[in-house]
Design brief:
There is one protein chain. The chain is an alpha+beta fold. The protein has one domain (about 5-175): Gcn5-related N-acetyltransferase (GNAT) (Aminopeptidase). It has helices spanning about 15-30, 40-50, 90-95, 115-130, 145-150; strands at about 5-10, 55-60, 65-75, 95-105, 135-140, 155-160, 165-175. The chain has a seven-stranded mixed beta sheet with strand order 1-2-3-4-5-7-6, sandwiched between helices. The model has no long low-confidence stretch (mean pLDDT about 90).
Length: about 180
């Protein structure tokens, strides 16, 4: 049995965009409740990584070198997609918001706290870059992701339709400067 130290977290580069999309799609295909997860495609992932509006992370299995899971952070700026509007943040705060966007762990690698480790790597980078508000969405019935997010210090701010009609609970975590 692997332990949590048998994985390393690496930043992704733009060339990883299709790997991200493939893993996200594979995880989505295996879900019984597909409404719990809105799957990003390769075009979106490429756009985010290429434009600098996204930061990708991948969990690597040390033994095999395979990618066990992926995580994308997006930087919405003051665009309408910024979840900070849903939390009542002011204009000056919106530029300090990052979205903990999509995370997908392949089934064979679940149970190793990779979702948490990927999010923590992103959080550390975002703190260093000056971001102060981390936000994410979860389907209200997805107790696995919801509990993981709450255990990391996120608090619920709203339940709304997002992403073209999907009901999502919106979470916020405030982080400080180093």
């Amino acid at each position: 049995m692997r332990n949590d130290t048998d994985f390393r977290i690496e930043k992704a580069d733009v060339d990883d965009h299709q790997i991200f999309a493939d893993i996200i799609q594979a995880v989505w295909n295996g879900l019984d409740k597909k409404e719990w997860f809105v799957a990003d495609n390769g075009e979106y992932t490429y756009k985010m990584l290429h434009s600098g509006k996204g930061i990708g992370y991948k969990a690597m299995d040390e033994a095999s070198g395979e990618i066990a899971g992926v995580f994308m952070v997006t930087i919405p700026g003051v665009s309408r997609e910024n979840l900070g509007y849903d939390a009542g943040l002011g204009q000056e705060e919106l530029v300090l918001v990052a979205h903990m966007d999509s995370i997908a762990i392949l089934p064979g690698y679940r149970g190793h706290k990779l979702q948490r480790r990927l999010m923590q790597a992103g959080e550390e980078d975002l703190r260093k870059r000056g971001f102060r508000y981390l936000m994410c969405t979860v389907h209200p019935d997805n107790c696995y992701s919801r509990n993981n997010i709450i255990s990391q210090g996120y608090g619920s701010v709203a339940v709304k339709e997002k992403y073209g009609g999907y009901v999502r609970e919106i979470f916020l975590k405030r982080i400080g400067a180093e």
